[in-house]
Amino acid sequence: MIVCEGGATRVIDWGSKNGVFVNAKRITEHFLKHGDVISVGTAEFRYEERAKRDTREN
Fold it and tell me: Is 41 inside any structural domain?
């Protein structure tokens, strides 16, 4: 599961058989940082943060 709240993003493994890895280390919960690589099975994902957009109207 990936959760975004309060300006932070974290990945949580709720007991999967093969595990979830961040930067090649098995995790149960991890707050993601720019550039982290998440591995689930044979799939890999890179977490990248973008600058926040100003949603206020001028």
Answer: yes
| Cβ–Cβ < 8 Å for 23, 45 | no
The pair of three-digit structure tokens given for residue 27, joined into one six-digit string: 């995790």
Q: Six-digit token pair at 43?
A: 């799939």
Beta carbons within 8 Å of 4's beta carbon, 6+ residues apart: none
Q: What is the mean pLDDT of residues 7-36?
A: 96
CATH number for the domain harbouring residue 30 = 2.60.200.20
Q: Are 32 and 47 in contact (CB under 8 A)?
A: yes
* Exposure of 41 in the CB half-sphere (CA atoms within 13 A): 2
pTM to 2 decimal places: 0.80
